[in-house]
Amino acid sequence: MSTDAITISRILHAGYAFECAGTRIAFDTIFENPFSRNCHAFPDVRFDHEQIRRLRFDAVFISHFHDDHCSLESLDLLDRATPLYIYCMFGELFDMVRQLGFSRVHALALDEAVEVGPFQVVPREAMDADVDSMFQVRAAGLNVLNVVDSWIDEGTLAKLAGEGPWDMVLWPFQTMRELEVLAPSRAVAAPPELPAEWLAQLGTLAPRYIVPSSCQFQQEPWSWYNRAFFPISYAQFAREVGAALPAAQVVRLDPSVSARLDATSLRPAPPLSWVIPVGAQDVDYVYEGNAAPPPTADIATHFAPLTASQQARVMDYCRAGLLEKYGDVEAASDYFDETRIWQLSVYDHEGRATRFRYRLAPNGVAFLDEGEAPLGWTTEIPAAKLYAALELGESLTSMYMRINDTVFDAETERALLDADVVDDPLIRCLFSDTFGGYQAAQLRRLLEEAGSGKQG
C-alpha cells in the first residue's frame, strides 16, 4: 500500500476512518441509525455490524462525550483490545468504557501528540475546551484538520494558521438551531448566509480541500425540526465557500464514501463495505424558518404510550422529584431572582395534557401552587420524552420541549427579554448537574444483555 497518501472515509456525522501504509484509525465512531435516539442518517444508510465486529482499528479517537460522538452501543461492536483515546474532563466516562471491557483507554490532552504507526494525531483546543476538542492529523507528509463540532476562537485560529499549510479541513457546516426550536414563537429565522467568521477563518487556514462535516442527520420523518433545525444546505455551503476561497475545492463525502488524498490530488477510493447506502444519497437540507411548528399535543401523539409504571414515574417526578431537585440548580440569568409562577404541561400519547403549576421562589424553594397569580414561565413536553430523559438519558436536542409559547403580561414580557431559554426550570432540573446519562443508560442495557446471554 502506498505510503504517500491517506485514504479518508466517511462513517456518519463526525465519524471518519483514516488509513495510511496499512494503519487504520477512526474518529467519533457511530455505527447506529438512528443514533442519539432520534437522529436519522441523512442520506440514509445501514451498518453491517458483523463486518464491523471483525474490523481491527489501530486506534479510535473520540473528540468529546456527547452521545452523537461517543456511543457505548457503537463502541460495543469493537474489539476490546482497541486503543481508545478520549477527550473528556469527566472520569465517569472512562470508568464506563472500562466497564464495557476496553483495556487500553487513554485520556487525551490538548496539544499532546499521539503516534499511531504513520499517523500523528494532536488534539487542539475548541472554543468550549471543557467539552470539545479538534484533531490535527498528520501522515504521509499531509496535514488534515478535523474541526468536529467546534467553533474556533481567534487564539486557536492563530495557532492553527501557524500549523499550516493545510491539505484538508473537515468543517462542521451546520449552525443547528438547537435552542431556537425550543421557543420558536420567540426566535427569529436564521440569516440566509453562512456566518461571516466561517469564511474568514477558512480563508486564514487556506486548505486545498474542504469537506462539509458533522450533521448528516435529520429527526423523525414527521418532525417539523427537519424544516427548522438545519439552516444550511450542502449546495449553499459549496456555493459560498467556493466564491470566498476559489483556490479550494469543496468535497462532499457521504457515509461510506472514501477518497485518497496525496500531495497533488484527491481521488475516489473504494467505499467502506460495512457502511451501506440506502436509497437516494444526493439529498440536501431545506430550511423554512420556524416552519409553523405543530402544537405539542400533536407531537405527543407520535410516541408510544407509557406503561402504567412509566407514567407513574413521570407523574411522581412532576409532583415531588422536581420540587426536591429545583433548589440544587441555579439559573444563569436573574429572571428567577424574584418569585415566578411556572406552568408545566405534560402530554400523553393521545395529546391530553396534565398541567402542574409551581411557585418558584428566589431562594430556590419550589412548591405546587393552586393560586390564580399570572404565569411567568411555561413549559410543554410529551410524557414519553420526559420519561426518556429521566430513565434513558435522552438529551435536550430530541425532547420536543416547547418553552414560553404564549403571551404574558407586559411586565413579564419585558423581563423575559433578558432571560435565557436554558434557564427553563425543567431543563435545569434534568440536565444542569448531570453527566453521561445517555451512556450510563446504554451501559446498564449492555451489561444486562451480556448477563442474560451468559445465563442463557
Structure characterization notes:
InterPro entries: RibonucZ/Hydroxyglut_hydro. The chain is of the alpha/beta class and 456 residues long. It has two domains: 6-277, 4-Layer Sandwich (Metallo-beta-lactamase, Chain A); 296-449, 2-Layer Sandwich (Nonspecific Lipid-transfer Protein, Chain A), CATH 3.30.1050. The protein is built from 13 helices and 24 strands. It has an eight-stranded mixed sheet, covered by helices on one side. A seven-stranded mixed sheet has the order 9-10-11-12-13-14-16. The chain is globular. The model has no long low-confidence stretch (mean pLDDT 95).
User: For the residues shown, what is the average pLDDT?
Assistant: 95
Per CATH, the class of the largest domain reads Alpha Beta
Q: What's the CATH superfamily of the largest domain, by name?
A: Ribonuclease Z/Hydroxyacylglutathione hydrolase-like
Main sheet properties: 8 strands, mixed
**Terminal CA distance:** 45 Å
The CATH topology of the largest domain corresponds to Metallo-beta-lactamase, Chain A
Per-chain topology:
Blueprint: E1 6-12, E2 15-20, E3 23-27, E4 40-41, E5 45-47, H1 49-54, E6 59-62, H2 72-75, E7 84-86, H3 91-99, E8 105-107, E9 114-116, E10 119-125, E11 133-139, E12 142-146, H4 154-162, E13 168-172, H5 196-205, E14 209-213, E15 217-218, H6 225-228, H7 234-244, E16 249-250, E17 258-261, E18 266-269, E19 275-277, H8 296-300, H9 308-326, E20 340-347, E21 353-360, E22 366-368, E23 377-382, H10 383-391, E24 402-403, H11 410-416, H12 425-431, H13 437-455
Parallel strand pairs: 3-6, 6-7, 7-8, 12-13, 13-14, 14-16, 20-23
Antiparallel strand pairs: 1-2, 1-17, 2-3, 4-15, 5-19, 9-10, 10-11, 11-12, 17-18, 20-21, 21-22, 23-24
Helix pairs in contact: 9-10
Protein name: MBL fold metallo-hydrolase
Organism: Massilia norwichensis
